[in-house]
Amino acid sequence: MTQKFLLTVCILLFGAVVPYLEINHTHVFNPTWPAHARLHEVWQLVTNSTIAVFCLWRVWWRCDLRLPSLLTIFVTGGFLVAYLIRDGYGGSMLHSDGTERLVLGINIGVLGFGITIGISTCVLLIDFFARGKHRTDGM
Fold first, then answer.
1. What digits encode the pLDDT tens for the residues 66-76?
2. What is the dihedral of CA 113, 119, 122, 127, to 10 degrees?
3. Distances (CA, A) of 64 to 35, 49, 55, 83, 117
């Protein structure tokens, strides 16, 4: 049960907390962003939130931890890859006002999603070894 709760927190981070933080003047309604960039932002938020709803359904109604763990790793890992290669495409975590959200000197997204990937990986491995390498109910 602890694994379900931990994974739920990780899923809610990308499925609810990120949209909450980005549907405002710094992202979706940022007048300095090109309309095309805002469209892509909303697309990403809707896609990730929909994946999160699917993951929560799998965790709580299908009692599946593997697929939701993997999807959580993919979604949050995608952010970390984008962060790591940001210099190559001119990306930045600085808001248009020049501020960056830091916790202990680390970007909040990097910290939060790094922890999320760690927790999701642990849940995946624990479930894998606790239930055995092969499952009969499919994924």
1. 999 999 999 99
2. -110
3. 39, 18, 9, 30, 17
pTM of the predicted protein model: 0.89
The model's confidence at residue 58, banded by pLDDT at 50, 70 and 90, is very high
Domain-by-domain residue ranges, the chain?
2-131
Q: What is the largest CA-CA distance in the chain?
A: 53
Q: Within a 13 Å sphere around the CA of 61, how many CA atoms are in the beta-carbon half? A: 6
**Sign of dihedral through CA atoms 41, 87, 99, 72?**
positive
* Encoded amino acid at 69, one letter: S
Give me the DSSP letters along 47-109: HHHHHHHHHHHHHHHS---HHHHHHHHHHHHHHHHHHHTHHHHT--S--TTS---EETTEEHH
Cα 36–93–45 angle (5° rounding)?
50
